[in-house]
Each structure stands twice: as structure tokens, then as C-alpha cells.
Task: structure prediction
Amino acid sequence: MARSAPKRKNPSDIEVSEDEFDGHLEGVLSQSEDEDGDFESDGEPDLDDGSSDDLPEDPDEDEEDPEENGEDNKERPYKIVTDANGGVRYEYEEIDPVYDSDDSDAQGPVNTIGNIPLSFYDSYPHIGYDINGKKIMRPATGEALDALLDSIELPKGWTGLTDPETGKPLNLSQEELELLRKLQMNEVPEDGYDPYPDMVPYFTSIEEKMPLSAAPEPKRRFVPSKHEAKRVAQLVRAIKEGKIQAYKPPEEKENADEEETYYDIWANEEPQDRGVMHVPAPKLAPPGYDLSYNPPPEYLPTSEEKKAWEDQDPEEREKEYLPQKYDALRRVPGYGEFVKERFERCLDLYLAPRVRKNRLNIDPNSLLPKLPRPEELKPFPSLCQTIFRGHDGRVRTVSFSPDGEWIASGGDDGKVRVWALNGHQEWSAKLSSEEPVQVVRWRPVKDTFILAAAAGEDLFFACPPLASDAVEKASRDVLDAGFEGRPCQMGTTRN
Result:
């Protein structure tokens, strides 16, 4: 929404006496020419609108006696105002062409910016200048509610367009609206217009009373044509040979035709062996325990299940029957849905699509993932960062703690050792002197610090004294709860 320009002071508020007019006439004329030059050279017109409000007014002019100058103001055809530079300027009232002029076609202020695009004035509150050098202010736009009300209550002749010269809404007159309506309806644009005027016969306006030639008719127009005689002879010959027959009604034609003969093409067919492309019909599924006359008790429905099955629609039922139990096979009654099921089976055999599916010929090696070549995995690790020394013999198991700060290992010497990441041994325990330590595992939670190890047929649990006091206490509580109150010593093992 464009910001409205600051208002100028009312020209009638600043007036001078008639004596002062004579002394300032020459200065006003020269000063008005300077102001016209300012309008043309001003690059930011917004500064002119706001500068007049900040200028001080002449106290002598405000204190004039209204009774003394009342008659002079009525007789004066001009108004004395101050311009942006503080000088006095005389403005004459604009002539209303409707009342004070004979020109009835006079319009409002005409924009005199020439061929300059109006987009250059988008950042200014005005859209150009009139013939007197005054700014043509941009029409003020209302709020969203006012715009909505204006769009609902459309005036007559409203187009929604804006006149590029004045910046005001472009409205059409009644005659222009009527002309547009006639053009849209493909009607005559104006009264008295004849879209189909009489054709002017430029070449047939003179009627000829005598023919162009007075020669008599030629003899060939009265003698039969030889070509037509030859054509008639051909038609007569075709009729005699029976190639052209006379028209017969449909009833006579049916009676004349012989009776149609039908042949049985399968009369002499011999049975043949089934070919390789034979597709057998799908077989029925074998009966289950629920179809037995004496099914197990878990297959028999309860009273609630039986009632729910009876309340369902036949199309929504999962099965067409309910399992029942009988003492003997001779007590089983006849199946009431036998004929219906046989009929549906026949429909399935008749309408079931049969398509032969070829066996996929796939190389099993193509299903295996392609392993990368060793050359693609380079560079290999070439430096050893940390060496863990301490075990006597082979190391059989290694496990990292849940927090990733400790490493537990076990080997043939029967000891369990806990290492720091820098290779320093922090804790060790002798579990067996004969059996090696096969497996070492940490409890996979961070709130406890429990290590489990297996040596031979024995299983050991240990709480290495490397964690905080709270974690060690929680670890002991977990071990004590699993061994019915037997306390676990810190740094000891229990099998």
C-alpha cells in the first residue's frame, strides 16, 4: 500500500496585504521560473511535500485583520502561498470547464510525462505532473475491507482496469458497454448498418434480348448417339446371358434356395494322447481336522462363535460350514450344500484361467553378491598402533565394554585380563590352572560393570574395580539378586 504524501498547508491561511503585492511582483515572477526548474531537476519528489510543513510561518501575515482584508480577498482572483523555499507565490484558481468555459470536452489533469514508463514512479506517491507543473498524486488505496466492498458493489461501467495516464479506475460509458455487448453477441454494432448490401451487377446489368448466334441447331442433336446405342446393346446381351436378373421379393428368394447342410467335423475324430502343453485342472485342497465327523475339541466352535457365524451374511463367512462332532460315522447326516459346492467347482474348472508358467533359467552364481577385489580395498593398515602384552599362550577371546573404554581378554593361561585402550593392563584374575578361558563377555548395559567368563565347564562373574562407586554398587546389587543374597566381593569372581 503506497504511503500518502504529506499535505500542504491551506493556501487561504497565508495571505498578505495589497500593499505588499506591488513590491514582490517582480520577485515572484523570477521565483516562479526557478521553481519550474526545480520540478524538472528534482530526482526525489518526496522531499518537496514534507518540507513545507517544517517551515515557520510569517507571524505578520497571520495577525492581519480579517475585517480589513475581507473585501480584498473577495476581489482577488489569486491566492498567496509560500513555496518550499519560503518565498511568496501567487496561485490562481483553476477554471472549471463545465461552468466557466465553453469547452465541454475538457478532462481532468493530463499527465505530461511523455513516453516515460509509469513504473519509474512506483516508489513515489505521485505518478507525474500536469501542465502547470503540479504533481498528480497516486489515487489512495483503501484497506482490505474497503477493497472487498468496492469489488462487491461494482459501479456501472466498471472494468477493473486503471487508466495509465491518470492512474484512476477506467470506467466505460453506456455507449461503449452497449457496443461491447453487441460485439460479443455477434450483433450489428450500430443501428442502420446493413451487413448484406445489394450486390451491384457490374457485368449483367444489360439484358440481351437476342442470342449471341442465330445459327440453326446442328443435326447431331436429333440423331441417336452411337455410343449410347452400343451401351444399350451390351445391357441386352447381359440380360440374355443371365448376368443381369430381374428383382425378386425376399420370400421367393428364400424358397428358391436349397436347404442348408450342416457337417459334423468331430464325427471321425480319434482320441489322441495329451501333449506336452497340457495344463491339468487345479485340485481341491485335502480335508482338514475341522471336516472330520469327530474333530478334536479345539476345532469345535463355542456358543458365542456359533451365534456370530449365524448372524453373518453368507458372503462374509470365512467357511461355509461349522465343525460338528458325532459318535459314529453312521450318524453323520447328508451335507445340504453338496450340490451348491459341486456347481461352484464346475464353474471354477470352466472359468479358471490356465497359463503355463515357464521355469526360470537363472544361473545360481549370478545370485551371489559380487565381492570386491583386494586391490580395491587398499590402502591396508600398515602401522601397529597398540600392542597388548601379558598373556602366556594363545588369546582365545576378546570383548569390548559397553562404553568402549575397556577391553577384556582370555587365553590358554586361564586368566582374564582387562586392558585400557592404550595397552596398559588394569586388572587380571586367575580363573583356572588347567582349562583355558573360552569366552569373555560384558553385561551389555552401561549402568553396571559386570564381566562374565567361561573356563571349561565353569561360569564366572566378576566386578572389576575400575568403575565409579555408584556403578560398582549397582553391579554388586545385580549379582547379589541373582545369587540369593550371597555378597560378591569387589574384584573377586564367583562361579
Summary: Residues 1-71, 485-495 have pLDDT under 50 and may be disordered. The longest strand covers residues 395-400. The longest helix spans residues 25-41. DSSP finds 13 helices and 14 strands in the chain.
